[in-house]
Amino acid sequence: MFERTGEYDKPIGVSDADEVERIAGLFARELGESAPAARSAALGIFPHHASVPHGLRLSIEYAMKVSLVRFVVCTSTLAQGVNLPIKYLIVTSVNQGKDRILVRDFHNLIGRAGRAGMYTEGSVIFADNSIFDEKGRRRGGRRWRGAKQLLDSANSEPSASSISAMFESFAYGQRDDQVVRINVGEIHRLLFSDDDAALARLAELARANNPNVKPREFIKFLQERVRIVHGIASFLLAHLNFEGDDLPERAVELAKNTLAHFLADEAQRAQIENVFRNIAKDLLARATTDEVRQALRRSPLAPRSVEALRAWLSGNVEPLVLAALAGNFAAAVIPMMLQHNRHSTITALSKQEIVPSLVQAWLAGETFAAILGRMIEADVRIGGNNRKPTIEHAIALCEGGFAYEGAMVVSTVADLAEGLDGALVDAFKFLQRQMKAGLTTGAALGMYEVGFSDREIAKSLAATFSQVTNFATARAWVRANGDLTRGLIATYPAYFGTVLTDDEWIRSIDLA
């Protein structure tokens, strides 16, 4: 709109122009100058959502908090989770993804406008006037009634438990008989039978009985049940001593103290107790030693994945040690990491053969724009709709698929490697740090971990402080070179200056 006409005042006019330039410059450096987010940032309009890189999100939150920027386009998550000085809240939609926002979440959201101690009043503006204009029509009437329902806090949803979702049926149509009911008594079997092949077989079985069932949707439904079962298993591993013969009944006692049990009727309570009992039995049967149970307890991965990673590590110790010595450790580990990484951003790629090279590019510290360029050059498509990749896809792939899920897989193997060759353990731990941050050198990783948590800024500081190897040495070098550090970060968003003034480890330094 601003590029088409000059009729409107740009938000940069009511913001701190220097801070806008600094944040916009970092957007352009990471996403490319042509990226829509970089172009809007130059106008003083800043995005804030899951597909904005971590360092930029921190920069925007801080700049808005201290009133350096005035215009942020965001999902409801920002307003719900950060105490920001919001005076005008413009609501363009009452949906979160495909679903309507919960009443309690909506009131939390609008309560952010005009917060006490920041403003004396605030305004909530509904920007979708079609809700009112079309209220006389059938579909419009439903939207109008739904919007009014949101405004009444008395309509807030009751408390619920994620465990209770295991009682829900899978609906594949509008009629009451178009459902697939799950045998809750058998749901515990998903603990160790959660691989893609097992879920696909269950989906085909459901479709054989109900031809209108879509396997992909049913598998998503099953995956939610898998998460419930894994969550219960993690809960039991964290709170139970596995010694003794009465483990299943002690698991039942834990079940009785859950919110799901409190909210359930008598029949459902018995089923919840039985699920906890059976999961405890399965853990006792498969996790036969304290060493295995400790590994399961520490890892956020599914038990089946931990078992497979343990077997892989046991059979590959020598080749892995040699790979670490030869300097190609990442290449030896990446195929295993991807095998146990089912993040949706990875599985959605049309050409899986390119993924290892994308991981290597991430580890090498390439920008999101450069990684997107690799995807475009390889003619990668996204999902079943065969969409062309965007910068948002590249960010989600790297920060979700590699930095989050990938780092969890590598961290699990690092735990499993404890007690083996010390150099091998160190190699896994270093790779986990690289995977999490998307950086190569110890200097860049140290600067990132010490608080300069943006990849481009960390790389820039590492070029000066090349002697840094980890958090401790980064802290020491910044302590010894406060003025130099302050000069180096002067061209970056104001948030990163707070690392020198607000962080506990640096407060004793005189930076005046």
Short account of what is shown:
With 512 residues, this protein is mainly alpha-helical. It has 26 helices and eight strands. Helix 16 crosses helix 18 and helix 20 packs antiparallel against helix 21.
Ordered list of secondary-structure elements with their pairings:
Layout: H1 17-31, H2 36-42, E1 46-48, H3 54-65, E2 72-74, H4 76-81, E3 88-91, E4 95-96, E5 99-100, H5 103-110, E6 123-126, H6 130-133, H7 138-151, E7 170-171, E8 179-180, H8 196-209, H9 215-239, H10 247-255, H11 259-263, H12 266-286, H13 290-298, H14 303-315, H15 317-326, H16 329-339, H17 344-347, H18 355-363, H19 368-377, H20 391-416, H21 422-437, H22 442-449, H23 455-464, H24 471-480, H25 482-488, H26 498-502
Parallel strand pairs: 1-2, 3-6
Antiparallel strand pairs: 4-5, 7-8
Helix pairs in contact: 1-2, 1-3, 8-9, 9-12, 10-12, 15-16, 16-18, 19-20, 20-21, 22-23, 22-24
Report on this model:
The protein has 512 residues and is mainly α. 56% of the residues lie in helices and 4% in strands. It has 26 helices and eight strands. It has helices at residues 17-31, 36-42, 54-65, 76-81, 103-110, 130-133, 138-151, 196-209, 215-239, 247-255, 259-263, 266-286, 290-298, 303-315, 317-326, 329-339, 344-347, 355-363, 368-377, 391-416, 422-437, 442-449, 455-464, 471-480, 482-488, 498-502; strands at residues 46-48, 72-74, 88-91, 95-96, 99-100, 123-126, 170-171, 179-180. The strands form four sheets. It has a two-stranded parallel sheet with strand order 1-2. α3 links the parallel β1 and β2 (72-74). The longest helix is centred in the last third of the chain and has 26 residues, at 391-416. The two termini are 44 Å apart.
